[in-house]
Amino acid sequence: MTCERERNGYFLKKYRLPAARAEPLGIIISRKRNKIPKPMAGDYITALLLLHNQGMIRVQKVSSSTGGHTGEMVRLLSALDFRHFSPRLYLVARTDDMSAKRVQQLESSHVSTADSTVAISRSREVHQSWISTILCNGPGTCVPPCVIALLLRTLFIKRSTIVFVESICRVTTLSLTGKLMLYILADRSIVQWPELHAKYPQTVFLGRLV
Amino acid sequence: MSVTPKESGSKIVFVTVGTTQFDELITQVLHPNTLEILEDEGFCTMIVQIGRGVEPPIPISRRIQISCYHFKENISFDMEAASLIISHAGAGSCLEALSVAKPLIVVVNQKLMGNHQLELAEKLHSEGHVFMCYPETLKTTIVDFRSTKLHKFPRNNPLAFSAYLEKLMGFQK
């Protein structure tokens, strides 16, 4: 992991694959707690533009400082075909070393099993590479990037699909982030309990995912 | 001093608080009365993961052997080895314990603000997958735990999500 640049105390880090593939796998934006204010919209824009220049970022993960959301996200991503969703970007708080480690674990476990030179599936050629998926699962920190993504889409700068997965913790009530996502930001909101789906029929219910 | 579980063939109880600080649980777990109940149940080893909490004084010269640590990159080995797991109500810890199909006592932290963990814990409790209690009621719950049988928690389906996302993004399956 190399530190690419430091800007106002934020670090943009790029992960690189150990051997075969040289393209960056993911970027971690992080901050020092208490020393500087929370990331501003500008930081997210920088990150998104950075992604835009790189072409095809497909999965973005946003996590707060708690292990639970990261755990859920890692479980969600573990079944995903990483060849289709590549490269991947993760947003993790700087103080959250555990989450960063788990993400690294996830990435390295896939590297060992995935064949990096495998032929790209036909359907991917049909879809332009600049369509990206933003995947988030709960903490309020995932709202700003989604707002910006929506803005960029509205201005026809960058197309993206926002998928929100409500935390397994929510059995009967949606979180505030969940409501924001469902009514305004996300293209699809997935819930993991039938009770919640019955209350909010616009959501998608696929069973328990994590 | 250090006896591996296999050598002693002992029953292990594993206590975890995830990435949180939950000193009330640690205090209760290490309370002489709790330890005595566990010893009577035949537990010989207790492993305590204390997260961000302060390191507690470890009672020595007891029948039950106690070890504790803050964090480990992978706690699944400890979960696998345990025959009883006592966990905080965090979703990650609960689901991990349930996925290895071990008896699980979920202890709710009442000090958490806007405790949304309670929602999941209550749901799992009402469907009979876990025992839910508070730090103060832990002792009685361990006693009750003997006589009650838990329902197996159904497996999750991560492939459904993968398939859904692939379809949404236009990949053919």
From TrEMBL, chain A:
It comes from the Eukaryota. One of its GO terms (cellular component) is UDP-N-acetylglucosamine transferase complex. One of its GO terms (biological process) is dolichol-linked oligosaccharide biosynthetic process. It is found in: Endoplasmic reticulum membrane. Transmembrane segments: none annotated. Pfam families: Alg14 (PF08660). Keywords: Endoplasmic reticulum, Membrane, Transmembrane, Transmembrane helix. This is UDP-N-acetylglucosamine transferase subunit ALG14.
UniProtKB/TrEMBL annotation, chain B:
One of its GO terms (molecular function) is N-acetylglucosaminyldiphosphodolichol N-acetylglucosaminyltransferase activity. Its main location: endoplasmic reticulum. The keyword Endoplasmic reticulum applies. It is an enzyme of class 2 (transferase). Keywords: Endoplasmic reticulum, Glycosyltransferase, Transferase. SUPFAM superfamilies: UDP-Glycosyltransferase/glycogen phosphorylase (SSF53756). Residues 12-156 form the Glycosyl transferase family 28 C-terminal domain. It is found in: Endoplasmic reticulum. Its EC number is 2.4.1.141. One of its GO terms (biological process) is dolichol-linked oligosaccharide biosynthetic process. InterPro entries: Alg13-like, Glyco_trans_28_C. One of its GO terms (cellular component) is endoplasmic reticulum. The keyword Secreted does not apply. It holds the Pfam family Glyco_tran_28_C. It comes from the Eukaryota. PANTHER family: GLYCOSYL TRANSFERASE-RELATED, N-ACETYLGLUCOSAMINYLDIPHOSPHODOLICHOL N-ACETYLGLUCOSAMINYLTRANSFERASE. Belongs to the glycosyltransferase 28 family. This is UDP-N-acetylglucosamine transferase subunit ALG13.
